[in-house]
Amino acid sequence: MRSSLAGELRRIEAQGLTRHRRVLESPQGAQVVVDGREFVAFCSNDYLGLAGDPRLVAAAREGAARYGVGAGASHLILGHATAHHALEAALAQFVRLPRALLFSSGYLANLGIVTALAGREDAVFADKLNHASLNDAVLLSRAAFRRYAHGDLDALEKLLAASRARRKLVVTDAVFSMDGDIAPVPALLRLCERYGAWLVLDDAHGFGVLGATGAGVLEHCGVASERIVYMATLGKAAGTFGAFVAGEPALIEILVQRARPYIYTTALPPLIAHALLAGLGIIAAEAWRRERLAQLIARLKRDVAALRWQLAPSDTAIQPLMIGANDEAVRVSEQLAQRGLLVPAIRPPTVPPGSARLRISLSAAHREQDIAQLVDALREIERKS
Fold first, then answer.
1. Which pLDDT score, from 0 to 100, does residue 59 have?
2. Phi-psi region of 361 (alpha: psi -120 to 50; beta: other; left: phi over 0)
3. Buried-most residue among 55, 144, 267, 291 (CB within 10 A)?
4. Where in the chain is the domain with CATH 3.90.1150.10?
5. Residues 26-35: pLDDT tens digits?
6. Ranges in the chain annotated CATH 3.40.640.10
């Protein structure tokens, strides 16, 4: 057994796919301390710079004083606190859907949605670049799994038209986590309405960032429908932790009754829910954070245009710099780290073979000088390579 595991590890290393953890010694932010050294970080999903915001820290302390630290039980036993209840109501109002339900993570939320709604007699239609949690959810549901090429609506329509499944779900990232592009939500919704399918949207990277008030991809695209199952995470732009699903009352009640990752998981610590109530107000009130982020995205796209490595098409905070080879992506990432810049190299199986990249994640907390430092470093590395 030990030798087989060692052999597998050697194969991972030979393919240039070994991953290592860094130890963060400071609050999450644009400037961090890792292993005793200061860095500018372009690798977090803290898109609005709220993870270390003093107001959220104060709200968490207040929540801990009121509710303690742990929830101590699942929501359906005795873990559902006043803070959870208030947050669910606030989230539903924020995204303009009738009802919301908290989950302990986005991964669990996706597992809960798909396995509660789909089974052996059903079919799930998924974009090939979906997050791993959606793929795992479909496999666990035992529904027929039909995948279509990224963004290929014609292929999706053919699959939907040919299906005789009892229930159909179209599942997709709203903002694709490794590419940064936004799903064609209005067109997907039209197909779902035409063929009687649910549209499951994983808006992990759009919530808080997209839309005039930060309400996410539905606000950004101006769509609404009873067929939408909306999921968003709270550990990225919202700066804390957890996730929620929002939609029609009957949908949410089905999840309460049937979603095993909700029923059999300890509830999110109520102090987190208390902090999130404060964070929602900040997201809605401080539009300058989204405006600042848009300015930084535009500057990065402009300043790296002359590089040999090109950015993939994206208007979101996720800006993938396409490298190609695994070893070159790792080398460039390491050389950036030597210059005090943290930018992760993303390799297969997270992305397709031959498409290794640097995933540059921008935050409203970044400064103009941070972008300039990154671009100068990339130019220097390119010149010497």
1. 98
2. beta
3. 267
4. 20-48+287-384
5. 999 999 999 8
6. 54-285
| Percent residues over pLDDT 70 in the chain | 100
175: Cβ–Cβ under 8 A, 6 or more apart, which residues? Answer: 181, 182, 183, 203, 204, 205, 206, 209, 210, 217, 316, 318
H or E element at residue 280: helix 270-285
Tokens coding 152: 């290929």
| Top-tier CATH class for 20-48+287-384 | alpha beta
For 203-215, what is each residue's pLDDT tens digit?
999 999 999 999 9
Spatial distance between the Cα atoms of 191 and 158, rounded to a whole number of angstroms: 10
| pLDDT > 80? residue 2 | no
Tokens of 229: 């199952």
Residue 271 and residue 87 in contact, taking contact as beta carbons nearer than 8 Å: no
Query: May I ask the CATH architecture of the domain 54-285?
Result: 3-Layer(aba) Sandwich (3.40)
What is the rounded CA–CA span in Å between residue 356 and residue 45?
19
Provide the terminal-to-terminal Cα distance of the chain, rounded to the nearest Å.
42
Evaluate whether 141 touches 167 at the Cβ level (below 8 Å).
no
Q: Could you count the other beta carbons within 10 Å of the beta carbon of residue 77?
A: 12
What's the pLDDT tens digit per position in 104-126?
999 999 999 999 999 999 999 99
Q: State the Cα angle at 207 between 238 and 32, rounded to 5°.
A: 40
Distances (CA, A) of 179 to 34, 315, 320, 356: 26, 10, 6, 11
Residue 15's pLDDT band, with cuts at 50, 70 and 90, is: confident
Asked whether 67 and 270 are in contact (CB, 8 A), the reply is yes
